[in-house]
Write a structure and sequence with these properties.
There is one protein chain. 49% of the residues lie in helices and 12% in strands. It is of the alpha/beta class. The chain has a single domain, classed as HUPs (Rossmann fold). A 5-stranded parallel beta sheet has the order 3-2-1-4-5, sandwiched between helices. Strand 2, helix 2 and strand 3 form a beta-alpha-beta unit.
Length: 180
């Protein structure tokens, strides 16, 4: 029996390696790298390059969205003084999950999800709520998850270190970098 197809939003290689590895047991996984929040552009390119390594390692398709940093800045600017896990992050989640849902619908996927809930800096309940919203809009199914549970984040650290993957020290956006 064929596994259902899932498009998984990847924000970075370490999180992608762990989560895609888990999901491959039950799904035909493809990755989607769409992260206009990452600043500066050199950091964006570095994370994309590392994520391509993971896709090659796992032998999965990796789709990429556009680098819409100007659009992201316009959406997030009014929340620039918010703390991490504040409203700026909610706007960022929605931007990335919305584009992932569009790509999933356009690509004929049954499901979509994101690796972002693996991070201790991300709010799984908010990600899941936003994911459900876009799933309904695009007539898809969103795989709700909190991948940091069951020591997921710790496991991802061990796994990514064993593969020599670059792990960033900030979320990615200009505002998190200033605070980090």
């Amino acid at each position: 029996m064929a596994k259902p197809r899932i498009l998984v939003h990847f924000c970075c290689a370490p999180d992608a390696l762990y989560v895609a590895g888990l999901l491959r047991e039950e799904y035909e996984v493809s990755g989607f790298f769409y992260n206009p929040n990452i600043h500066p552009e050199e950091e964006y390119r570095k994370r994309l390059q590392e994520t391509r390594k993971v896709a090659d390692l796992l032998e999965i398709e990796l789709l990429t969205g556009p680098y819409e940093d100007v659009r992201w800045m316009k959406l997030a600017e009014k929340y620039r003084d918010e703390p991490e896990k504040g409203r700026r992050c909610d706007v960022c989640y929605a931007m990335r999950l919305g584009r992932t849902a569009e790509a999933a619908a356009g690509g004929g996927f049954e499901f979509f999800t994101t690796v972002m809930s693996l991070s201790p800096w991300k709010k799984a309940e908010v990600l899941n709520r936003i994911g459900r919203m876009f799933a309904a809009k695009h007539r898809l199914r969103f795989l709700e998850a909190n991948f940091k549970k069951k020591d997921g984040f710790r496991e991802s650290l061990v796994l990514s270190r064993s593969r020599g993957l670059y792990r960033q020290n900030y979320c990615g956006c200009l505002y998190s970098r200033k605070k980090g």
